[in-house]
Amino acid sequence: MTIATTTEAVRRYARLQVPRYTSYPTAAEFSPNLSEADHRRLLQALAPSEVISLYVHVPYCRDICFYCGCHSKKAIRDDVVEDYRAALEREIGLVGSTIGKPISAARLHWGGGTPSVLGASGLASVIDALRQCFTFEADFEHAIELDPRLVTPSLASALAELRVNRVSLGVQDVNPAVQAAIGRLQPLQVVEAAVERLRAVGIDDINFDLIYGLPLQTVASLRKTCATVAALGPDRIAYYGYAHIPERKANQRQIDPSTLPGADERFEQAEVIASEFRARGYVRIGIDHFARPDDRLARAAAAGRLHRNFQGYTDDDRSVLVGFGSSAISEFPDGYVQNVPDVPRYIKAIGEGLLATARGCRVDADAHRRARIIESLLCQFRADLTQLAPGADFGEEIDMLAPFVAEGLVSVGDGVVAISDAGRTVARVIASVFDVFYRQRTGRFSVAV
Ligand SMILES: C[S@@+](CC[C@H](N)C(=O)[O-])C[C@H]1O[C@@H](n2cnc3c(N)ncnc32)[C@H](O)[C@@H]1O
Ligand code: SF4
Description:
By secondary structure, the protein is of the alpha/beta class. It has helices at 3-14, 36-44, 78-99, 119-133, 153-161, 176-181, 188-200, 219-230, 263-279, 296-302, 343-351, 365-379, 385-388, 395-400, 402-406, 427-431; strands at 51-58, 60-61, 73-74, 103-112, 134-146, 166-172, 206-212, 236-241, 283-285, 289-291, 307-309, 312-314, 321-324, 329-332, 335-339, 357-362, 382-384, 410-413, 416-419. It folds into two domains: 1-25 and 364-449, Arc Repressor Mutant, subunit A (Orthogonal Bundle), CATH 1.10.10.920; 30-361, tm_1862 like domain (pyruvate-formate lyase- activating enzyme), CATH 3.80.30. S-adenosylmethionine binds next to β4, β6 and β7.
């Protein structure tokens, strides 16, 4: 096979729509068959020795950006945000009493939306509620997603007091024309000030979220963006491909589709981003992250300890993640459960003393095996089937990998599936071979690159 054949194959696969695999089965397989009673049983089954991770979702923002695909609404009235905070605390108490035993927590991740809309006292109050139900481990990791435009010196100090030790800043792009096209005006000085304020209070584990495939972005403009953001010295960068789903996200209809880069351009952009960060000493992690070599995520990746959960790549190896808030997903050893995304319905359910269960799915032994294989392919770019799924027969999948092998994207031998350097860009497509549900579907997910 020639380099041209491999490149042509990668470009072809990059156009396919595949899941992001932040779980397997993916959220597309969740169904309402998993009831509130099942949700309770999953919580009650937690062992007292279990050390879990916590996620709190806050679905409010100052404004809604045109591109946003997250579960969030514009926070217009303070009392509405306040009602939500009260429901969160009530849900925490409800979950704690359902678990019914002391449980330790090693991590807390605040996501959204923009969790800081709760204000310092709101965040503190929710943390108090969590502390009443869970014992925080000594080396507790406390992470929060922040909008740099809202990082005031007083918020930074409050976060330090709350022992936040990792933050994720939504940078997206630094080019003013791109920012105008995506409804996110955020001068570079705003990001610089946010970074300085956080570092000044001792919060120096900083991640930047950036997006490629946005309107008006070009390979040349992204080169500049990469250079500008790398100069600020973040520890990690998550560089997501823009997922444009205007049929499901009305806010995205404000984006003129004629200004979006095409599939080939997106492919070039992803390649350029990888080479720009590599040239600046960052290590490529998984499919869309970069980190300094001494960062925890980079060390986990080097040691084969990288994992993938609903927050993306992580070094968290715990099998239980309990999520709070509308749309939050919880992960248990035997299944996934998602809360209702609609905020009024979430508040109503919690007010009635019920868990706000919307849907979920059970994970049986076959799904566990496939989950381990898919995670390994996306984290380590290889999967040892004999180790991850001893005794299982994946003959059909090995046959389905034959075209990828012929195109130089994968090698298979001694039960090990290894993705080549060229194949990494389309690792999700390769991993989807092990997804039995995906085979029955088409056209439901964002493009692969
Ligand atoms: C909850 S937001 C981050 C925190 C904060 N709200 C902010 O925007 O600064 C999570 C991240 O998801 C990414 N994101 C949102 N919508 C996206 C989309 N449609 N496609 C790809 N990435 C997206 C953005 O990089 C965003 O920063
Ligand atoms: S990108 Fe962040 S600030 Fe913008 S709407 Fe989405 S969650 Fe809110």
